[in-house]
Amino acid sequence: HTSRVMIGPEQGRENHPRFTFQFCGRGAHSLAVTKRRLRRAGLLAPVWSLRRENDLGIGDTAALGELIDWAAGNGVGFLQLLPINETGEDNSPYNAISSVALEPSLIDLAAVPELAPADLQEAREAVAPETFTADAVDYDAVKGLKRGLLEKAFARFWESEREAERGHAFARFRAEEAGWLDDYCLFRFLMDLEGGKETWSYWSIRYNTAEKARAYLAEQVAFREEEVVRRLAYYAWVQWIAFEQWRGLRNYADENDVKLMGDIPIGISYCSVDVFFERQWFDLTWYGGAPPETIFKDDAFACKWGQNWGIPLYRWEVHEDSGFRWWRRRIEKLTDVFEVFRIDHILGFYRIYAFPWHPRRNGEFLPLSHEEAASRTGGDLPGFKPHADDNEAHCQANLAQGDKLLQAVLEAAGENEVIGEDLGAVPDYVRPHLKKIGIAGFKIPHWEVKWDPKTEMEHPIPGSKYDKCSFATYATHDHPPMAAMWNDFRANLKHAEEGTRVGAAWNMRVLSEIGNIPLPKEGGSYRAYNQTIQWALIDALFSCRGDYAAIMITDLFGLSERFNTPGTSGLQNWRLRMSFTVAEMSSKPA
Question: Which segments of 291-337 are extended strands (E)?
């Protein structure tokens, strides 16, 4: 069926006409009938950034439920989220401690039957009021608050419900999910013994390997069985609550013809239950990352050596011999919640830039020459694995690997749709291959340019020329929003460095051409970002030919704040909260 999208109210848009975008939504009932994609408009909104009345200092499943209502009312076809797996101490959604377990702090505690409104109010009064009003998530406060409430709720469940109907449902969940859940619960048990730290390589020698951990558990059960059994049940119970809420959200979104779009990172954290208990899948001598980038001017290591993400490389031959069992499980659990999912850094399936040292040694290698570094690694240096794209044979080998691996991903995904984040140093063979196998790659309009010999300049490729199998957006969570991007380029027109000025002028011209925004007359200047510019650019994006087009929630409301700044480790990353509630979005000028 067909809908008309009307994003944002008419007021305050400098007489810009109300924006409409024709798209077709596809309900779950049609999935078995056809896999043909139908065009959808989307909104990227990290769950933790959402705000609702009386929340507990972080966005949660209830806030996302409200956003589903908003999306359905405004004809938005999908909501794009960041990973929702459980995070460790750094709170990055791309550094989860499990490929399956869900983040407990995103649970709506008001919907947990064992908690009463008075419990939530008492917990709120025990922390600083600014925890709930600040413009950034205070993870220490929020996680502590929610952990206390979950512990209280579980105590009541354990005493009165475990033999009742809810207890039987919980037991079924534990039995059905035992393949990953049992190891996860033991990992969390050990984390708590270590003060919440997931860095297992620094744990006590009594349980710092999988074999020792299982032996230690057996000893503890023999010594204090009731206590240990109860603690393991607690971790499983929290996951049961989380999965129940998220599965319910998927059903609710389907009922409202809104698709939830998830995100699956190419790698998994070194400090994860997966690496700890299932080491056979991983090569712990090489760590994935990205090539050197001079754009990260404040990160000397990234400029010289690249980004060392610390994700262990996969032993792909072991995965293949198992029928890709680990990947199938990972995707199966992801599609419990999401009908569409994005693979972050899909280029890593073809080849990945890798380091022969763990990130904790980055400081050691920063000042070294290549020769000095090689002397400490046995001759190895950072580079692409399994091959650099330095000759035709290597390109074909990388392409063959990517095809084999992604075919396995598509098979595991079934009728669910796969998007590929294919940004960065993209080999020539990647995008034609993604199109061939039906995975939509990214189109960043101001990066999609073509040389015109008539004008002797590069000009943006019109959105009408994009492949249908594509995903158009101005920014990902790692980029500045449109307002910041425009104003930064505008300010850099007067930068002291000529290269910066030239680059800024190029970007301002290209963005203006994309939005059909008049260029300044000779001697004139570009206007500061405003709603006319904002909606001209949004109009251009949603007029493209691609199957998917999305803007960030910050772009919808003309905000400049960022969700993440790559190459930095400051406390500002992954913490931004909207200054308004989801309920206020319908009346807020966009």
Answer: 307-314
